[in-house]
Amino acid sequence: MREAEQKHDPIINYPRYLTEHGIATEAELEALRSEIDTEINEAAEYAIRARRSTADSAMKFVYSPTVDASSDQFKSEPAFEGSELTMIQGINKTLFDEMETDPRISHLRRRRG
Prior knowledge:
Helix content is 52%, strand content 0%. The chain has helices at 2-6, 10-20, 26-49, 87-100, 106-110.
């Protein structure tokens, strides 16, 4: 099972795609990995050194101070259209619809088929 999942793992496949199609060299990808590792490590160190939150701050920024999401302003009847989808089908459809609006990720759109 794990080997089958790895065949579809974008962490493994995307760098291979980039090198096979001449989009990036292995040296460029390694430099990018190094940059990402550095950024992650710096963020982790920053988080570790940060002052701990107090218990009274737990609810800060959970709810809008200016909008009441339970108000009548947000009441509406659902408008169903199209066929019924499973949750994963709905997520995939949403992702692909968003990809179609962004030309920077055209290679992903081609896989939709």
